[in-house]
Write a sequence for this structure.
């Protein structure tokens, strides 16, 4: 029977600090997406926008503390986690481990991003222009593609926070629950369970982008399908890396993909 790893509070606080940084880093990007509605929104606020942002940061810290705690507990029971950080805290040398995962992590992130760009450009964009042509032309250009520096900061949120929520928390919990239905001889979830958890987390990853999209366009069947396909494909790839190489690999890959999508495209 697989012996669950002990809960390491050092990893918990490192991840919480990283998640807090990610929440702060994405603020300029989020404000750019809401630029067209911000003036009217501020007029209705019962408090200054700066105070509201501080409260949202604190609220997110609580959310991520719960997600990290539950995610670590689930991951520890099924053999997933952060092998490089765990090794570093155990006093082991990790330079070799980092070099081993960098090519595949960055490669999958960059190639995945290029595939997404191609699908959007040649498959979804023509249909989107037919359905929302005038509406898309009326949008603030920065709402469609915020400045590169804002995209760079937002990439930390994608690489850190979204991987904590979608892979460490959601995928781990789903896989842990799934092992009660189908598990290996040592009590861990089967490969099928891990892949089902991966796909479910990826679909939810795609759906999670809809609130930001709804600020720009109506949520039609086309818009929802686009979000699930474009984001879900990358989500499955990140989930594979999480299963195979650990959360650090998924984080590096997600960050690399976002650099292509939110920085290079904005230059």
């Amino acid at each position: 029977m697989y012996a669950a790893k002990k809960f390491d509070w050092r990893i918990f606080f490192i991840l919480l600090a990283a998640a807090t940084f990610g929440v702060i880093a994405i603020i300029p990007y989020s404000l750019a997406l809401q630029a067209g509605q911000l003036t009217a929104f501020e007029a209705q606020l019962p408090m200054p926008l700066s105070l509201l942002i501080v409260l949202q940061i604190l609220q997110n810290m609580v959310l991520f503390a719960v997600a990290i705690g539950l995610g670590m507990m689930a991951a520890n029971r099924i053999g997933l986690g952060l092998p490089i950080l765990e090794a570093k805290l155990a006093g082991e040398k990790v330079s070799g481990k980092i070099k081993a995962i960098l090519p595949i992590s960055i490669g999958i992130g960059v190639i995945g991003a290029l595939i997404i760009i191609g699908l959007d450009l040649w498959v979804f964009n023509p249909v989107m222009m037919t359905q929302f042509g005038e509406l898309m032309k009326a949008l603030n250009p920065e709402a469609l593609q915020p400045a590169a520096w804002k995209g760079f900061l937002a990439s930390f949120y994608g690489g850190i926070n979204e991987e904590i929520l979608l892979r460490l928390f959601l995928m781990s919990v789903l896989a842990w629950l799934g092992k009660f239905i189908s598990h290996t001889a040592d009590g861990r979830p089967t490969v099928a369970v891990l892949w089902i958890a991966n796909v479910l987390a990826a679909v939810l990853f795609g759906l999670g982008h809809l609130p930001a999209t709804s600020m720009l366009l109506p949520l039609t069947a086309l818009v929802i399908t686009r979000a699930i396909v474009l984001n879900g494909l990358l989500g499955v790839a990140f989930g594979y890396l999480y299963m195979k190489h650990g959360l650090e690999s998924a984080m590096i890959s997600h960050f690399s993909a976002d650099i292509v999508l939110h920085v290079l495209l904005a230059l």
